[in-house]
Specification:
Length: about 280
């Protein structure tokens, strides 16, 4: 039996071939690196799987080395293939894995699928003709860190004006804070917007405007036929994202604008683990 494992900052999620799902809380543990890596080993080996796909948030090379993981700093500089020695394993960036899962399970007719996941951060993944596009080193589709505003807001990566600096949990929280002076968590802002609060609605509208700019850039660069939006924040804000496809089309050049359809991901919090499982069916990742 194969399985996918998604290593995040708070949970390790597991998605088995037979559909079983597991969630292991690891936040307290991730400060002690050796205990954390031992726990990853235990979870990956558990059930004696024939192969394991591993999705990890961060800049991850094709040979399994996590160069930098802003959300799981305990993995910085760790080679997960070495940690999981003895196991038949594939290691890929989490949103790249998620994108392949979207293609394999839900959109197999797509030639060029772009997956954009928005939560704590913003990540992208691309599948071209049924193959994940990982770039030369494994770090393609860092869409969250393409600049949409010169000298703009500070991003988690340390640069300014990145797409993620606007379209992420902290981006939304910053919009709201600038409007009201109040510090509020992302889901609370969405709840207030649902309740009709003016400032929350304006913050959500700012988020939406910036989302469209980044998507327009991505459509012009990549010419996808399927755009899938996912991640916890997109899921929470779905009620405010109606009409996105038509609006985006009107902003894009006619030819690439004609090609794409937008879908919302349906696999919720197990997207990346499901994508990691999907990777185990590929020979050359
Ligand atoms: Zn950035």
């Amino acid at each position: 039996m194969k399985k996918g494992v998604d290593i995040g900052g708070t949970f390790i999620k597991v998605f088995w071939e037979d559909g079983r799902r597991e969630k292991h809380y690891i936040k307290d543990m991730s400060r002690d690196r050796s205990a954390f890596l031992e726990r990853i080993r235990e979870i990956a080996f558990e059930g004696n799987p024939e192969s394991v796909g591993v999705a990890v948030a961060g800049f991850t090379s094709k040979d399994g080395l996590v160069y930098r993981s802003p959300n799981v700093p305990a993995l910085d500089g760790v080679n997960l293939r070495e940690v999981l020695e003895g196991l038949n394993v594939k290691v890929v960036n989490d949103v790249s894995a998620g994108a392949f899962g979207e293609w394999l399970y839900d959109h197999k007719n797509s030639k060029v699928l772009l997956f954009v996941a928005i939560g704590t951060g913003l990540g992208g993944g691309l599948v071209v003709e049924g193959k994940p596009f990982l770039g030369a080193c494994g770090s393609s589709l860092e869409l969250g860190h393409h600049t949409i505003k010169l000298d703009g807001e500070v991003c988690s990566c340390g640069r300014r004006g990145c797409w993620e600096a606007y379209c992420s949990s902290y981006g939304l929280e910053r919009f709201y804070h600038k409007l009201t002076g109040e510090k509020l968590k992302d889901f609370d802002i969405v709840r207030r917007a649902e309740g009709g609060e003016d400032a929350a609605l304006r913050a959500v509208e700012e988020f939406r405007k910036h989302l469209l700019i980044g998507l327009m850039n991505a459509v012009h660069i990549l010419n996808p036929d399927r755009l899938v939006l996912g991640g916890g924040l997109v899921e929470a804000m779905k009620g405010f994202l109606g009409g996105l496809e038509e609006e985006l089309r009107s902003m894009c050049e006619t030819l690439p604008g004609l090609c794409f359809s937008i879908s919302f991901s349906t696999c919720a919090e197990y997207c990346m683990a499901r994508g990691a499982l999907a990777l185990t069916y590929l020979d050359d990742v």
